């Protein structure tokens, strides 16, 4: 009889122990750590309030656009060897130092303005297209170009923001398939350059004001936008957006980017790139900048 009882399972009702076991299992399931949500892809696809702003010289393009433009004008006999030698020295300094020398940049702008004075805007635009093919196309950094394309593929607008002449910047932006460009505006009357600027060069803090003005006009939210630059001069612009990137940075910007935890990319070769890591995580008045931005926006809309 004892054996029969051993072979036959006893019928049991829910006891206090079984109830406790069930409650413990349920509590453990509810207390299980949830998986961390995956970080959203960046750039965010389909965000109508986001855009990207790229500095041009040494960020998108090796060297300075105005120097390449000067080479093209020399080839077309707009000026003589003495001016070309100055352009060549300034370009060599820019590439070796990897940063902007204010005196060199001012000298280059003054030279360019004196050279184009009296020429028609449409003439210089046509020549600019040729110069892009001759000297600039091969100077575009593939890495930065890929970053800009990522924003375009996400459906975002992409703008160049540069101290280079707005006509030159517009040509480069169009050739790269970008949305447009903000740049320094040279005065013209009746379609002829006067040799003067409208306001001041779009440089330093004025770039931030230009981006702010454009964002307001385009309905952008700067906290969702990105900006890219190589120069500490552009810290005001980089600080304005939610996603700042230091690209091929000079020493001051690299130090600032690391201190702020900004992303850092270097597409140069040689010792500078090795020292920084590929990739590694990491003035003019504001009123003039806003004025230049307004002129550029007005021109684009027309």
What do you see in this structure?
It is a single chain. This protein is α/β, with parallel strands linked by helices and about 300 residues long. It has 13 helices and eight strands. The strands form two sheets. The protein has a six-stranded parallel beta sheet with strand order 3-2-1-6-7-8, sandwiched between helices. A two-stranded antiparallel ribbon has the order 4-5. Helix 10 links the parallel strand 6 and strand 7. The chain starts with a helix and ends with a helix.
Features:
6-stranded parallel beta sheet, two-stranded antiparallel ribbon, 302 residues, disordered N terminus
What is the count of helical runs?
Answer: 13
Low-confidence runs: 2-9, 32-39, 270-302
Range of strand content = 5-15%
Average pLDDT reading: 78
Q: Strand order across the biggest sheet?
A: 3-2-1-6-7-8
Summarize the structure.
With 302 residues, this protein is an alpha/beta fold. It has helices spanning 2-7, 16-31, 65-75, 81-97, 102-116, 121-136, 142-153, 166-175, 205-218, 235-240, 251-260, 271-276, 286-301; strands at residues 51-54, 157-165, 180-184, 186-189, 192-197, 226-229, 243-247, 263-265.
């Amino acid at each position: 009889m004892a054996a029969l009882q051993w072979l036959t399972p006893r019928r049991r009702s829910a006891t206090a122990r079984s109830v406790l076991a069930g409650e413990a299992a349920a509590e453990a399931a509810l207390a299980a750590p949830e998986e961390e949500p995956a970080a959203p892809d960046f750039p965010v696809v389909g965000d109508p309030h986001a855009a990207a702003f790229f500095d041009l010289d040494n960020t998108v393009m090796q060297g300075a656009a105005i120097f390449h433009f000067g080479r093209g004008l020399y080839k077309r006999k707009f000026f003589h060897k003495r001016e070309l030698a100055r352009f060549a020295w300034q370009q060599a300094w820019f590439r070796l130092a990897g940063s902007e020398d204010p005196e060199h940049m001012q000298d280059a702008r003054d030279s360019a303005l004196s050279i184009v004075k009296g020429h028609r805007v449409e003439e210089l635009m046509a020549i600019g297209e040729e110069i892009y093919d001759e000297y600039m196309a091969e100077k575009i950094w593939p890495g930065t170009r890929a970053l800009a394309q990522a924003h375009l593929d996400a459906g975002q607008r992409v703008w160049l923001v540069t101290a280079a002449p707005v006509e030159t910047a517009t040509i480069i932006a169009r050739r790269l398939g970008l949305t447009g460009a903000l740049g320094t505006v040279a005065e013209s009357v009746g379609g002829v350059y006067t040799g003067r600027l409208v306001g001041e060069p779009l440089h330093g803090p004025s770039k931030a004001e230009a981006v702010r003005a454009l964002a307001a006009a385009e309905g952008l939210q700067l906290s969702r936008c990105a900006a890219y630059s190589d120069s500490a001069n552009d810290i005001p612009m980089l600080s304005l957006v939610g996603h700042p990137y230091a690209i091929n940075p000079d020493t001051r910007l690299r130090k600032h980017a690391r201190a702020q935890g900004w992303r850092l990319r270097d597409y140069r070769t040689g010792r500078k790139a090795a020292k920084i890591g590929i990739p590694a995580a990491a003035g003019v008045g504001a009123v003039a900048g806003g004025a230049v931005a307004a002129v550029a926006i007005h021109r684009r809309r027309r």
